[in-house]
Design a protein that fits this description.
Elements: E1 5-12, H1 19-33, E2 39-43, H2 51-62, E3 68-73, H3 80-86, E4 93-97, H4 112-125, E5 131-135, H5 141-154, E6 157-161, H6 175-181, E7 185-189, H7 191-195, H8 201-214, H9 222-241, E8 246-249, H10 254-259, H11 264-272, E9 277-278, H12 283-294, E10 301-309, E11 314-319, E12 335-337, E13 347-351, E14 355-365, E15 368-379, E16 388-394, H13 398-406, E17 413-418, H14 422-432, E18 435-437
Parallel strand pairs: 1-2, 1-3, 3-4, 4-5, 6-7, 6-8, 8-9, 13-16, 15-18
Antiparallel strand pairs: 10-11, 10-17, 11-16, 12-13, 14-15, 14-17, 15-16
Length: 438
C-alpha cells in the first residue's frame, strides 16, 4: 500500500483575467482529487487573489500538518502570492499550470502558464529548488508518489541489530547526516536483542506451518526448521514491539554461530509479508527499500549485482537467500537449504519471477546523498544456483551500467522492486537536491 500523505491546495488568480472560469475549474479539480487513494486533501476553497488572501491561506494550512503543497495557477497572478505562502509553509511544492481556454474576443483568458513561469523564477532565484512544475488538466501522480517517498523516509524509524557486515565499510553511514538529509532516525540493538526476543509457542507453530506449505524443507533438519520458524516469529515481534519501519541486520559472521542458523530464510518470509529487513546491516539499503515501498512497490529486495555477461548483455541480481518468497517464479522448486556457513546457512533458494524491475540505491558519501537508478527486464532462467536471484537485461548495455556503478563508487547492494518507479524517484531526488546517477 502506498504511503498516506496530506496535501494542501490553493488556487491563485487575478481579476484582470477570467478568474470566474478558474474558480469553476478549481471546483472540478477538487472533486477529481478527492478520488485519489491514501491522500488527505486540505484545500483552501476560495481563490487566492490578494496578498492578504495568501497570508490567510498560509495560516490556515500551517495548522494542517501538510506533507506537500499544490499551488494552482488558476490565472496569472501576483508574484507575491506563492512567496507569501512558502515562507510559512516549508513543504515540497507543486506549481500546477492549466491548459489555456479558448480565446474570448482575442483576449487570453487564463495566462496560467506565465504564472507558473513567474513563480518558478521567483523561487529559483530565492534559492528554493524543491518545486515541481506541470502544465496539464490532471495532477501529476508521480509528484504525489515522490511526496509519499519523502514522507515515509522523514518519519522512518530504522533499527540496526549488530553492525554492518565485517569489512563492508562502504555501507556505513553518518547517522546525524542521514537525519539531516532524510529525517530518518536510527536506533541500535544488539543481535541477541533480536534473536532472543520472546515468541510464544503458538506463534512459532504458525510460522513452521507457513514454511512447510511454502517450501520444500527436505534439505534442512527438523531442528533447523524449528530455528527458522522461531526466528521468524521473534523478528516479527521485535520489529512490531519497537515500531520499526525497517530493520538492518548484521546477518554474518556471528549470527549463525550465536543463534544456530543464518537469518536468510526468516527474512524471506517476513519480507514477503511486507516487513523491510536489510541484509548485512545496510541502513541505506533499508531506506532504499522503504522508498520503493512508499511509491507502491509491494516487496522490494536488496540484491547484489553478482555477475555481468558483456557478450550476452545480461546481469545476475543475486543474494544468498533472503528475497521475499512471494517473488518466486512459480516454476522451479522453492526450497530451504543450508549450503553455507558450515551447514548453518538455511537460505531460501529459488529463481525470481520475470518482469519489469526498478533498481535503485540511495547512497551516502561523506554524509551527502545521491541516488543510483536503473530499469531492467527480468527474464526466465533455470534454477542453477543456491540463493535467490534474477537474470536481467538493462535498458542500457550492461557494461555501461557496470561502469556507472564502479566509477561512481556506488555500494554493492541495491533495492530491486517489480514495476517502474523511475519518475517519482527522479522527482524525489530533485526535491532533495541529490545527484542522480543513471
Amino acid at each position: 500500500m502506498k504511503q498516506p500523505v496530506t496535501i494542501g491546495v490553493v488556487c491563485l488568480a487575478r481579476t484582470t483575467f477570467d478568474y470566474k472560469a478558474a474558480a469553476e475549474i478549481y471546483r472540478k479539480i477538487q472533486d477529481d482529487l478527492s478520488k485519489l487513494h491514501n491522500v488527505r486533501w486540505e484545500c483552501v476553497n476560495e481563490l487566492v487573489i490578494e496578498v492578504e488572501d495568501a497570508q490567510a491561506a498560509a495560516r490556515e494550512l500551517s495548522r494542517k500538518a501538510i506533507d506537500g503543497l499544490v499551488c494552482i495557477s488558476g490565472t496569472f497572478h501576483l508574484g507575491h502570492l506563492v512567496l507569501e505562502i512558502v515562507r510559512t509553509i516549508k513543504a515540497p511544492l507543486l506549481l500546477w499550470g492549466l491548459n489555456e481556454l479558448p480565446y474570448d474576443g482575442g483576449k487570453i483568458r487564463l495566462n496560467s502558464v506565465c504564472g507558473v513561469n513567474l513563480d518558478a523564477s521567483n523561487l529559483y532565484k530565492a534559492g528554493m529548488r524543491n518545486y515541481h512544475a506541470i502544465i496539464q488538466d490532471m495532477i501529476d501522480e508521480n509528484w504525489i508518489d515522490a511526496l509519499r517517498i519523502k514522507t515515509a523516509l522523514s518519519t522512518a524509524h530504522v533499527g540496526i541489530a549488530g553492525y554492518r557486515a565485517h569489512g563492508f565499510y562502504n555501507i556505513d553511514i553518518d547517522e546525524p547526516a542521514t537525519y539531516r538529509e532524510i529525517g530518518a532516525l536510527v536506533d541500535h540493538y544488539e543481535l541477541a536483542d533480536a534473536f532472543n526476543f520472546p515468541a510464544g509457542a503458538d506463534e512459532v507453530s504458525a510460522e513452521r506451518k507457513k514454511y512447510v506449505n511454502l517450501f520444500d524443507v527436505s534439505g534442512i533438519s527438523a531442528d533447523q526448521l524449528e530455528l527458522v520458524a522461531s526466528l521468524a516469529a521473534r523478528l516479527r515481534a521485535f520489529i512490531d514491539h519497537h515500531k520499526l519501519s525497517a530493520l538492518a541486520l548484521r546477518c554474518w559472521p556471528e549470527f549463525a554461530a550465536s543463534y544456530g542458523i543464518s537469518p536468510c530464510a526468516a527474512m524471506s518470509l517476513l519480507q514477503s509479508e511486507g516487513r523491510i529487513v536489510a541484509c548485512e546491516g545496510d541502513i541505506d539499503g533499508a531506506l532504499s527499500m522503504l522508498a520503493h515501498r512508499a511509491a507502491g512497490a509491494e516487496t522490494p529486495f536488496l540484491a547484489d549485482l553478482s555477475q555481468i555477461n558483456v557478450d550476452e548483455n545480461f546481469a545476475l541480481l543475486w543474494h544468498c537467500g533472503a528475497a521475499p518468497c512471494s517473488l518466486w517464479d512459480g516454476n522451479c522448486v522453492r526450497s530451504l537449504d543450508s549450503y553455507f556457513a558450515g551447514g548453518k546457512g538455511v537460505t531460501a533458494d529459488f529463481v525470481m519471477k520475470p518482469g519489469a524491475v526498478s533498481i535503485m540505491r540511495m547512497d551516502s558519501v561523506s554524509g551527502c546523498y545521491r541516488m543510483f537508478m536503473q530499469s531492467a527486464l527480468g527474464i526466465p532462467m533455470e534454477k542453477e544456483l543456491r540463493g535467490t536471484y534474477l537474470k536481467v537485461v538493462f535498458e542500457k548495455p550492461v557494461k555501461s551500467v557496470f561502469e556507472r556503478i564502479i566509477y561512481n563508487g556506488i555500494a554493492h547492494h541495491a533495492s530491486m522492486a517489480y514495476g517502474d518507479y523511475r519518475r517519482p524517484l527522479e522527482i524525489f531526488a530533485r526535491m532533495q537536491g541529490w545527484e542522480l546517477v543513471q
